[in-house]
Design goal:
Elements: E1 4-7, H1 11-15, H2 18-30, E2 34-36, H3 46-50, H4 54-68, E3 73-76, H5 79-92, H6 100-108, E4 110-112, H7 113-120, E5 133-137, H8 140-145, H9 150-156, E6 163-165, H10 180-183, H11 185-201, E7 206-209, H12 212-225, E8 230-233, H13 234-238
Length: 250
Amino acid sequence: MKPRVGLFVTCLVDLVRPQVGFAAVKLIELAGCDIEVPATQTCCGQPAWNSGADKHAADIARQVVDAFESFDYVVAPSGSCAGMLRIHYPELLKNDDAYATRARSLAAKSHELISFLVRVRGMKDVAARSNVRACYHDSCSSLRENGVKTEPRTLLASVNGLELSELKEPEVCCGFGGLFSVKYPEISERLANDKIADAQATGADTLLGADLGCLLHLAGCMEKQGKAMKVRHVAEVLADIHGPALGEPR
């Protein structure tokens, strides 16, 4: 029997870039899983948690646990949302007798998409083509909360026609940080400008990443500066789903 995967779509994918969700579905099915998208899912609660609205965040977390606990795995095409489920739900609900154990159980089977494909399902390559020279942005949440570093590079190395160049400072934040970019816009923009300069210095024409928040932030700053680099979620490339890049007209 194939493992059952619940796809945690994420707010940004649902509202801004649905094709990332379609790409995730394709990749998870290629990895030999049955996949479902629970209709009752909402936000992961991270904005509320980061702003100190713990009660609201806990209410959201309970709803997510209810929606996803029956699945063998929970997978999100976002390091930040996966990190919220994996790391912060057990902390958020630790004093809730009805949900503390359930939150820990959910956390143990929750994964960032690319990590799930490589670590859990053993995927080593994909049948995709993309004639681009790309560089890869490691989001803070993917890198630090989920420990994802080599996994996207492993799969991107198998994409026919793709040439991957590394950033000089891949572990530096892009400046998004969710509410950080709202509270400290000047610092956020400066970090984004530094990240964009680093990406352009690689000679790449496309910037890839696994967190849509980071990618939208960088794409917006590039558009503001009149930069020509394309920005895409890595799942789109791995799933061989083509179309306009972030910020381009559809």
